[in-house]
């Protein structure tokens, strides 16, 4: 009996030991089973709409089972519906489990099906069907150690490692003529000149190439070239699109901001932050406000439906575009795909989408008034230092000149005779001539002053008796301590109001005022020396307009603010122009009355000198002319002064001369509390969401700590900081991949807007992380990154194909050569202008319109036109990018539609391209101009003309065969048809 008892005890112990052993050997749920279920099952069997009613994401759901019964029966795996379906090959339906996963699942079920984390997070692990939190692009950036101790560029080391795995190597270095053409196009979008090519070819020094890189990166054309790439991604357009397609007259300012930011190498983290929240981070910085044009660069449907439900849907569509733009541009993720449901391929929940949308929910679009132009905060100290150095350099010389003037009595300049003068001694008559003024509205004469109420009061005169181009406007005025908003003091204008020059007052900040002038409807504010407007304080102002277009302002007889040079001075014809006092712009479009007391006003029919203005103001002249100053400086001092002026000009904001000092940017509004919308339907509101980043990717960093009703400004500020953080691995990786793509024709990831599951794996992951880490270490300098890339052996390779390499890597993903590329549409047009000698290098300002706008039924249409003249010969980036304003030549060469983001341009080859280059009126005109240039620059000898033509278009001399054929062609058909042939040649259209 005792033996039986001991035997039973032993059996029980054995069974328990076996159970304990099997439990110890059981697969780990969180590490092995959860990833299996997440990758194979949960796409169909999780959530409230699980197929067959089976939810395998929770223990309760799995135990309960679905329509066919319990999915899991612990230790009875053969009775578990889950196992039965898997064993029969029914589940997963399209691709049965491989044998190793079947055994893993069986072992887990046999061991008791012990559950772990509940519920299973479907995003925790990447699978063959979707990305998880462990997806490569979401991991911290790691800088790989160099593969050797040589001086080889790290880029080349990492590329060579991959090439050697395939028994491949780099191609030989490119010919120097090819290299300078490649690099110049790459960094500036324009061809090098023959002189630049010859200088580079003849310079054998080791530093020649690096010096070339530096020079091109310092060129203003660099910003114009690379801004076009950025505007493609931002889907920048200068009209609304959709049904009405209304123009956005001031959208060009954002384009100019991008160009300027790139040219001055604004750190990329700041570049991004300003575009998301510039008006919040630097509210008084004009350029920071302009930068927010990025968020509203896309198309906008201005046709509002009548129903509230449809308006809400339209608003959600608009928000999706903004969220998608931010997500793809800075993070390389298609966040907007989670608007209606959790992302199908990336670990982004619908809740994440609405959190991000909440951070951007206050973004509205429209015209926004600009603050006065100021130096960016990061350059303010440098500006002060340069200004002080310049003042120190000039001070002693200026003092000596003024002292000499006093000794020689040169300062005794008499006040000039005005063309017309109004002294308001009892009336508004002209005391010098016949332009007798007439009082309007509330205007009145009191105690020898013209008193204006700022509402309806002003004075007008009869038409001029003679025409005036060069002119000076003068006024002695008191604002009586009142704030002003752009009121006119004295104005010379055409009777129809189409043109006017004026002294204008406007509020810069409460209690302050400034003066300016209008020229061809451009406002020239004399900012920077703002004075407090004291009550009963009379100030003398004069604005001088020279016939050559120079405009100068004076306050109390001394130079005031920044000078401005226009292309010409306005001509005011006799009998069709008049003077206004107290009104900026008269009938029929009269506006901006001024509230002030005016002691006198004068008009001069010539440009006064500085001394004459000082005499008119009753003060001695302290103005020293440029010629006087330069004559007293030594050659070394002159060179030093020029350098300081150039450095100051590079960082000092350009004065805004456009009449309408506004920009198309965000016009923020405090949003309502955001909700998760079920299936994206605004009528089915789910739980509240707080402004945040993508919480599932970085729970701590992406939690902004804001309430659901947080101020709009705080939302975008926090978003900008989260996106542009060094800790955000997507931020650096996305941008370096874009740069790599534009330099080599394809990115290390072939989908620059998608670094998620659908974008796939990088061809060189170590290289991508090396570039990202270098980008951060080099303080986000884009120019430093350019330099690192273009100085590599990989970039300087020849482009000739190699048969053995093509068999292994036909797409050149391993970069065994430099892939030849056709010029983009804009580069084709710009190069035609340049080689023909017609390129107008004027930078910035309002866009030129290569179309005729036609309004019909409330809709704006754009009729393409090939217009002539310098304005239409500027670089293509300065054309007005109306969404409906197509350019047949550019469109033929795959110029993208600005209604959609274009991270990668297509490059097609079609018959229309050949036909356009042969027959388009622009091509014909450029061929004629090209021929005229050859005759002018090369002389009458055909051989010299042919040689110059090849040098300009192909960067090289013609071969003997080409020279002979070209000479015969010119003799038979003429020079212009020959130029037309070269503009159609592969040597012109392709970069090796």
UniProtKB/TrEMBL annotation:
Query: Which parts of the sequence are annotated with region: Disordered?
Result: 47-73
Keyword Zinc present in the record's keywords: the answer is no
Molecular-function GO term, any one? heme binding
Which InterPro entries does this entry report, sorted A to Z? ConA-like_dom_sf, Cyt_c-like_dom_sf, Cyt_c_Planctomycete-type, DUF1549, DUF1553
Signal peptide per UniProt: 1-17
Q: Which residues form the Cytochrome C Planctomycete-type domain?
A: 41-94
DUF1553 domain location, by residue?
715-969
Where's the DUF1549 domain? Answer: 155-364
Keywords, A to Z?
Signal
Indicate what this protein is called per its UniProt record.
Planctomycete cytochrome C
- Origin species: Anatilimnocola aggregata
